[in-house]
Amino acid sequence: MTSKERENFLRNAILVVDHSKAALVSLVELDVQNKGQTFEQFVNTNQHEIYHLYNSSRCCQCPPGHYPPRSPRILHQSQMELLFDRTSKLPCHNTARRSDDFCCSMAKSGLCTDVLDLTLARCLLVNLCREIFWYSCLQFQSITLEDFLNHNKHTLYHLWQNNTHCCQCPPGYSFPTKHSMLYQNDWTQMFNSALLPCTNHRKRHSPGGMQSICSVAAAPGITLMNLDPSVGRIILQHCCTLRMDVETLVQIRNQDYGHAKEGIMSDNDYNASVVKIERCILDIAKVCNKETHFKQKLQEAKYGALDQTLFTQYQTNLMETLTRQADINQVRRSVALANR
Predict the structure, then answer these.
(1) What is the pLDDT of residues 145-202, one digit of tens each?
(2) d(CA 260, CA 238)
(3) Residue range 267-295: average pLDDT?
(4) pLDDT band at 207 (very low <50, low <70, confident <90, very high)
(5) Cα separation of 73 and 58, whole Å?
(6) CA separation (Å) from 210 to 130, 206, 215?
(7) Backbone dihedral region for residue 101 (phi beyond 0: left; psi -120 to 50: alpha; all else: beta)
(8) Distance of CA 295 to CAs 92, 140, 188, 299, 304, Å?
């Protein structure tokens, strides 16, 4: 082990533990601000949705005939305890029916975003803050949904036709998913404006109509109100740069777990990690109007003086996160086996 490898680990840990988290928290804060709420109000407004990220059983707020999806638990007790006060319940809470856990619990008084870590911030963003991702795709870029769909038409086409190359596929193109994510009705709802087909399709007896990517453009004047929410989530997951930046920062944190055990990181691994972290954080900073702030923090993390007493602190932090994630994964595996 060299001092340079320890330094690489420490500088990367600062980027992962502190600045990646700060970037995601800034996005949550922007979404909350755009909604005219405090973070406490945001959590209370979304209490029902958040609860069912933790418990998939029916609760007091579920309307008659509604059954939450039977999906693996996304949030866990330690995370719910950061957000909610189990002793404070909504008026609709039925104590005779459910007296346990966080059903109908109110957000902790004075709750702020400083309770969020990278994992919890990512969970709230992906499940409850989709408006901020659409903002980054549309208003922030000064384009319409019609423009956005046309720009991402090839990716969207292969979220539907995921096993057949089209006339616009470049050599060596890899499909974005292994399985179809969209149905034909989803495609035709988004793309139903006729175009002159490409030369090859014009030579055929049947040019292809709405099923050929070259034959269609996005529906004129289409808006988010015209999209099914589930389709919108798929589009953001695969076409929104900001959404992919969020996932990349979490993936980098997960990939760096291996280094936490030894507390070292090679120059090659460090340099590759820093390039990706910087790109993602600065993408987020632009949307949050915090470029100057985050550029300064990134420079300090890469070149500033290091307090070596922080080494053990960051190593412990990452190891605790690794252990917690392993526990979460074990619960998910157990739930999946039980539901088979």
Answers:
(1) 999 999 999 999 999 998 889 989 999 999 999 999 999 999 999 999 988 887 776 6
(2) 30
(3) 96
(4) very low
(5) 14
(6) 29, 11, 6
(7) left
(8) 47, 20, 43, 6, 13
The label of the residue with tokens 């055990």 reads 261
Contacts of 264-267 with C-beta under 8 Å, sequence gap 24+, read 264/1, 264/2, 264/5, 264/6, 264/8, 264/9, 265/5, 265/8, 265/9, 265/12, 266/5, 266/8, 267/4, 267/8
Closest of 298, 242, 253, 295 to residue 125, by C-alpha: 242
Residues 94-123: pLDDT tens digits? 776 655 679 899 999 999 999 999 999 999
Residue 327: partners with Cβ closer than 8 Å, 6 or more residues away = 76
Those residues whose C-beta lies under 8 Å from the C-beta of residue 71, and which sit 6 or more positions away, are 56
**Most confident option among 78-82, 312-316, 334-338:** 78-82
Given pLDDT bands bounded at 50, 70 and 90, which one contains residue 246? very high
Q: Which helix (H) or strand (E) holds 192?
A: strand 191-194
- Say if CB 17 and CB 318 are below 8 A apart: yes
Rg of the Cα atoms in the chain:
23
**148's tokens:** 């956005």
pLDDT of amino acid 58: 85
pLDDT confidence band for 6 (50 / 70 / 90): confident
User: pLDDT-based confidence at 244, cuts 50/70/90?
Assistant: very high
Encoding tokens for residue 203?
């030579």
Structure tokens belonging to residue 122 = 């990512």
Separation of alpha carbons 311 and 247, rounded Å: 26
Handedness of CA 303, 306, 311, 315 (dihedral sign): negative
DSSP E strands, 90-150: 105-107
Cα three-residue angle 334-180-67, rounded to 5 degrees: 50
> 285-322 burial, b for 16+ CB within 10 Å, e for fewer?
bebbebeeebeebbeebeeeeeeeeebeebbebbeebb
**Nearby residues of 100 by Cβ (< 8 Å), 6 or more positions away:** none
